Amino acid sequence: MKPRFSTQRLILSLLIILSLYSPSLHARRVYLFISKDDFNDAASSSPEHEPAVFDDPMRIPDPGSWSPLFDPDMNPEAVNGSYYAAVSELMSAASKGNARMMAGAAAEIESAANDGDPHAQSVLAFLYGAGIMRERNEAKALMYHHFATQGGSFQSKMALAYTYYRQGMYEKAAKLYAEIAKTGVKSFLTSKDSPVVEPIMIHDGAEEDKEVLMNFHGEEDESFKMLVKEAEEGNAGAMYRIGMIHLLGLRGLRVDHAKALSWLSKAADKGEPESMYLLGEMYATGVVCVERNYTKALELLTLASEQHLYAAYDRMGYLYLNGYGVDKDYTKAIEYFQKAAENDGAGGHYNLGLMYLKGTGVKRNVQLAIKYFLIAANSGYDLAFYQLAKRFHTGVGLKKNLPMAAELYKLIAEYGPWNSLSRWGLESYIRGDVGKAFLLYSRMAEQGYEVAQSNAAWILDKYGERSMCMGESRLCTDAERHQRAHSLWQQASKQGNEYAASRIGDA
Questions:
Q1: Does residue 459 sit within a domain?
Q2: Which of 225, 253, 383, 470 has the most CB atoms in a 10 Å sphere around its CB?
Q3: How many structural domains does the chain have?
Q4: Signal peptide position in this chain (predicted)?
Q5: Backbone dihedral region for residue 432 (phi beyond 0: left; psi -120 to 50: alpha; all else: beta)
Q6: Which residues, including other chains, have CB under 8 Å from residue 324's CB and lie 6 or more apart?
Q7: What distance, in Å, lies between the first and last C-alpha atoms of the chain?
Q8: How many CB atoms lie within 10 A of CB 150?
C-alpha cells in the first residue's frame, strides 16, 4: 500500500496528541510547508539505529533536575547534597520574597559553580541571564552554560541550543537539539519515571484562565469527583479516564501506578478497548507496575483490535516485526501495520516508514519512508517529527534544511524529562505560591519553552510586586520588572504567541 501524495506544495497541520509515550495535555499545532523540490535522492549507505518502542525500561538521567525537591521519591539521596540545599533555599526565597535569603542561596551556588559543579554552573548561568542577585550579563550566562553543558547538564544544553536557535545559528542549534531530542525520545519510550505533560498556559489573554486551572485541583475537583462516581457505578469509559489520570499524574494528582492498573484492569474487564490497548502496551514494555509479558500483551492487543481499535494492530505488528513473544514474521508485521494505516493509524504509517527506511522485509526506499513519516506526523505521531528532523538535518531523503531540522528537534527535545518543571510551576501557582511559580517558569523560559515565557511575563504584569521578582540586589524595581516582562513577551512572540505579540505592540 502506497500513500497518495500530491506533487504540489503540501500544507500539513501537524498535531501532537495525548498518548502513553507522547503525553501532551493540549494539542500543539505546527505547520510544515513541503514541496516536491524538498525531496532528495541521496540516501545513507547504511540504515541508522532507531529507538525501539519496547526496549528495556530504564531511568533516563536528568542530572541537576530540580524535580527531586518536589518529588523526593524520584531520587531520595540527591536532595541531601549541598547543590540541592542551595536550590531549595533559592526557591524558598522566591516564595517568601526574601532578597537576603536569595542572595545567600546565589552565593552558595556561585561557590559550588566555581568549584566545578556543572549543575551549579547551570543555575548560576540562569541567575546571570535573568539578572537575579547578579547584574544581568549574557556573556557570563553563556560562559557558564557552556561549562555546565560539558558537565552533562541538560538544562544548560536546552538553554544553549535555544540561544543558538534565537540567533539563527542553525547548524549549532540543530546539532545540540539533535543530541537532546535523542535522549528525549528514549525517555518517553522507555523511562521508568512518570511521563511529562505539555506546559499549561495559566492565562487567557490578560486574565487568569480559570476554566483551565479549575481542572487541576486533584481529588477535590468537582468534575473529578463526578468521574469517580460514574466509574463506581460501572461506567467503563470513566474507569479508563481515571486510570489515565493516575497513570500520567494529570489534573493535579500524583502518579499512582497501582491505582492506574486497578482502574484500567476494571475497564478492560468490561470490554473497554482503549484500556485493553493501554494494558497491552504496559505488558509489552514492563515500564510501569507490571512485569513484561509479551503473551499477555498480544492477548490484550488482539482483544482491542477485535473491537476495531486499529492502533492495536500497529502494536501487534511491532511484536511480529521483532519476534517479541512470537516468531519473527515480517509479512505478518507489514499486514498489521497496513491494517492500522488503512484505518488512520498513525503508528502504522510510522512503522511502515521505518521498514522502508531500513529495508526490513521490503526493498529499501527512503523517499517512500519519508512519505509515510509525513502522514504519521500529520496525525500527530511524535516519533515521525523526530524522523523528519533527522532527514532535514542529514540531507538523507530530504534536502538539508537546518532551520527546519532545529525547529523539529526543538519540538521533540521539549518533551524530555527536564520538562517536569512545568508541572511544579503549575502546582505552585494553584497553591498561591506565585513567587516560586515565577521562578520555575523563568527557568523554563530560558530553555526556550514558549508557554513558560508567556506565563512568567503574565505573572510579572498581573502581580507586579507580588510576583516576588528578584532583581540585582533586592526585589525587582518597576523598571526591572518591565524590562524582564518585555524580554519574555518578545521571546514568546517570536515563537508564535499572538497575545505576546500584542503585548510587545503595547509596550
A1: yes
A2: 470
A3: 1
A4: 1-27
A5: left
A6: 54, 284, 294, 297, 318
A7: 55
A8: 12
How many Å apart are CA 41 and CA 407, to the nearest integer?
23
Q: Can you tell me which residue has the cell 525500561?
A: 57
For the purposes of burial, counting CB atoms within 10 Å of the CB of 371, is it exposed (0-12), middle (13-18) or buried (19 or more)?
A: buried
Q: Is residue 89 part of a domain?
A: no
Is residue 458 assigned to a domain?
yes
Q: Which residues contact 139 (CB under 8 A, 6 or more apart)?
A: none
Q: Is residue 25 part of a domain?
A: no
Record the cell numbers describing residue 377, joined without a space. 506526523
Neighbours of 318 (CB within 10 A): 23
Alpha carbons 390 and 81: distance in angstroms, whole number: 38
Over the stretch 295-349, which tens digit does the pLDDT of each residue have? 999 999 999 999 999 999 999 999 999 999 999 999 999 999 999 999 988 999 9
Tell me the per-residue pLDDT of 187-223, one tens digit each, with 9 for 90 and over: 766 555 555 567 889 999 999 988 878 777 677 778 8
Closest Cα to residue 215, out of 66, 26, 70? 26
Eight-state DSSP code of residue 16: E
pTM of the model: 0.87
Cell of 277: 490497548
